[in-house]
Specification:
By secondary structure, the protein is an alpha+beta fold. Helix content is 31%, strand content 27%. InterPro entries: EFG2, EFG_II, EFG_III, EFG_III/V, EFG_V, EFG_V-like, G_TR_CS, P-loop_NTPase.
């Protein structure tokens, strides 16, 4: 039996989270092992779904809710938009927690890592399961910092829907665009929640327009705010023509009233709501033919008579079709409008059976996740998210099967069904999940243990962390023998360093942070090389002639071509060795020892004596490639970052002056309420320590976001300066 088990680590116990999709009524069964209770109910937590104290009330109700009543969702957003606070309120109103967690106080449920609570940011995704009005919701809180984009990527692969949280005063921000593109890639239905409606500068109209312009999405306004900033006190439900007002004397937001809008008491609000409802009906009718037929038939004379249930069903279809995005608003921090958001999650986002997958598998042990707590369960039905332990060789992005034969059998069955039904789509391809696209690291530094005796322990820790976080790369410097960490940013490597100390008890030392440059060539060159060596009584002989030229299309790996003069019979046995030699040589360029990209290598001549080993062939080819790269005109490529700085207008001038000194290129300056948003590009090498400088010159009032844009050629002056600095550093070593 073939399964889709979508895996990602969720906490420091090194667990893997599994998404077990639509199995057509089949079950996953496990053998329960005697163990200590996995659920630790402290004073902060309310009873988990189906539990009274530590006793299981109905295990079946926990494990096997109807699949139509399951929602697997993620919370995604730009950093500081209020994702974790929104999640905390959701858990509180659903009865999962007894008290309101606060990011600033470091007592939130999903930010349970020590580093998260100290910094007030989400670093690692966390899964939580709770119930809301008869629905089972599996929720994953994801990071918003650009250094942890991969965490969002691997979470979206296991989700059926998502809530995009936006700061109503800022609208769509840089990381919002990134996570939105990731959701587009995985075809995830979404709803938008405009958070922080109580914040100074909050603008519902501005935020909605930013969704339309920047995300290129069609917003469906399901709510209107009653007041903005300090006057925000509730929302209007456009679909049901009701107003929801929160009691200002209520500390936790549970006390609110829902009233129908009447001509007598709310004439202006009613008029505005009716106009918004008509616009919503027309918008949905344009996107859904079934709804259009209904509207133009029975309700063409008076849209006001259209039942709310019919409109809600149509909005659900439109959301699943990814043709529009429902928009709601509120304030998580002030405990307003979170309950309607929960209603919208269950009403408009899909159940697992509405996402097209057919998978199952047998697992040895299953656990139900509650952030950093869990309960062992005997079985799990389709559509749920669970944890498994003990997968020693599994890494993020793997698809697990019970055996090779079962995988082949499932593929053959799918192919037969496909041929029988004459389907256009390839069902066989859907048996394997798409792998996670791992971004290339842009920073690196050396790491050393406190003593050489601890090196094996450090190697083990780094191996575990790499399985959990594929965006972390570890390599060995061939010259110095030092271990090198490669990551997505300063914060990323800082967190890894801290986790090694806290979770593995190892004291380590990081070397200076360095930029991951690359190299290329600007002209063609040719070279030959011969290897003639006798080992024991065996002679190894290889002669190679190669040409290197600039690649016609961008490529991070070398493009390898073979001239017609090269014997195809000879290549049958030696092609793998030849290509290994080319790839190995391109890992270190002649200028900085950085990887070579955008280069084409053509093999013009190859002579190999019988009995020559593949290792000797690779060594000769590698040496020849290094020769030809040295002969060509060489160029250093530096990572260019897309930079977005949000700054009060009073501090705009010093920010622009500082960027000019950093070889920055400002593309545009936008107005965002009372702030200015500077958008441009800056070399990564010039941006180290930028957060400290920006905090100083703006009195702590500015924020910025960085994202890798591309690699660009350095100008001759900057390249010579860099080479002089590097040669000086190597000389001092």
């Amino acid at each position: 039996m073939l399964t889709s088990l979508r895996i990602f680590a969720v906490n420091r116990q090194k667990m893997s989270s599994l998404y077990i999709n639509n199995m057509c009524g089949c079950k996953i069964t496990t053998r329960l092992r005697p163990s200590k209770p996995d659920v630790l109910l402290g004073k902060h937590y309310s009873s988990l779904p189906g539990l009274i104290g530590n006793d299981i009330k109905s295990l079946h109700s926990i494990i096997n809710p109807p699949i139509a009543k399951i929602r697997n969702i993620g919370i995604m957003a730009h950093i500081d938009a209020g994702k974790t606070t929104t999640t905390e309120r959701i858990l509180y109103y659903s009865g999962y927690t007894r008290s309101l967690g606060d990011v600033d106080d470091g007592d939130t449920v999903t930010d349970f890592m020590a580093q998260e609570r100290e910094r007030g940011i989400t670093i690692q995704s966390a899964a939580v399961t709770f119930d809301w009005k008869g629905y089972r919701v599996n929720l994953i809180d994801t990071p918003g910092h650009v250094d942890f984009t991969l965490e969002v990527e691997r979470c979206l692969r296991v989700l059926d829907g998502a809530v995009a949280v936006l700061d109503a005063s800022a609208g769509v921000e840089a990381q919002t665009l990134t996570v939105w593109r990731q959701a587009d890639k995985h075809k995830i239905p979404r709803i938008c929640f405009l958070n922080k409606m109580d914040k100074t500068g909050a603008s519902f109209k501005y935020a909605v327009e930013s969704i339309r312009e920047k995300l290129k999405a069609k917003p469906l306004l399901l709510q209107l705010p009653i007041g903005e900033a300090k006057t925000f006190k509730g929302v209007i439900d456009i679909v049901n023509k009701e107003k929801l007002l929160w009691n200002s004397n209520s500390d936790d937001g549970k006390d609110f009233e829902r009233k129908p809008l009447l001509e007598k008491s709310d004439p202006e609000l009613l008029k505005e709501t009716v106009e918004a409802r008509i616009a919503l009906i027309e918008q949905v009718a344009d996107l859904d033919d079934e709804f259009a037929d209904l509207v133009l038939g029975k309700f063409s004379e008076n849209f006001d008579l259209l039942p709310a249930e019919k409109l809600q069903t149509a909005i659900h279809r439109v959301t699943l079709a990814l043709t529009a995005v429902p928009v709601l608003c509120g304030s998580a921090l002030k405990n307003k409008a979170i309950q309607p958001l929960l209603d919208a999650i269950t009403m408009y986002l899909p159940s697992p059976e509405e996402r097209n997958y057919d998978f199952l598998e047998k697992i040895s042990r299953l656990l139900l996740p509650f952030a950093d707590q869990h309960i062992e369960i005997p079985s799990l039905t389709a559509g749920n998210i669970a944890l498994t332990v003990g997968l020693k060789q599994t890494a993020t992005g793997d698809t697990l099967v019970s055996s090779k034969s079962s995988a082949l059998a499932a593929a053959q069955r799918a192919k037969r069904r496909e041929e029988k039904q004459q389907r256009q789509s390839c069902e066989v391809e859907r048996l394997l999940l798409a792998g996670v696209e791992i971004p290339e690291p842009v920073f690196f530094c050396t790491i050393e243990p406190s003593s050489w005796a601890k090196q094996p322990d450090l190697d083990h820790a780094l191996k575990c962390l790499q399985r959990e976080d594929p965006s972390l790369k570890v390599k060995l410097d061939p010259d110095s023998g030092q271990t090198v960490l490669c990551g997505m940013g300063e914060l990323h490597l800082e967190i890894i360093h801290d986790r090694i100390k806290r979770e593995y008890g190892l004291e380590t030392y990081l070397g200076p942070l360095q930029v991951a440059y690359r190299e290329t060539i600007m002209s063609s060159a040719r070279a030959t090389d011969t290897l003639d060596r006798t080992l024991g009584d065996k002679q190894h002989f290889v002669s190679v002639e190669l040409e290197a030229r600039p690649g016609e299309t961008p490529s991070v790996t070398p493009v390898i071509e073979y001239a017609k003069s090269v014997s195809r019979d000879l290549l049958k046995d030696s092609q793998e060795a030849v290509e290994n030699g080319v790839h190995n040589a391109c890992l270190q360029g002649p200028l900085l020892g950085s990887p070579i990209q955008d280069v084409t290598i053509t093999l013009h001549s190859l002579v190999i004596h019988p009995g020559t080993s593949a290792t000797m062939i690779s060594a000769c080819v590698s040496r020849c490639v290094q020769k030809v790269l040295k002969k060509a005109d060489k160029q250093i490529l530096e990572p260019l970052m897309h930079l977005e700085v949000t700054v009060p207008r009073d501090f705009l001038s010093p920010v622009l002056a500082d960027l000019a000194q950093r070889r920055g290129n400002v593309q545009e300056i936008q107005t965002r309420q009372y702030n200015r948003v500077v958008i441009g590009f800056v070399p990564l090498a010039e941006i180290m320590g930028y957060s400290t400088v920006l905090r100083t010159i703006t009195s702590g009032s500015a924020t910025f976001v960085l994202e890798l844009s591309t690699y660009r050629a350095m100008n001759p002056q900057d390249q010579n300066t860099l080479l002089s600095q590097k040669s000086g550093t190597m000389a001092r070593k």
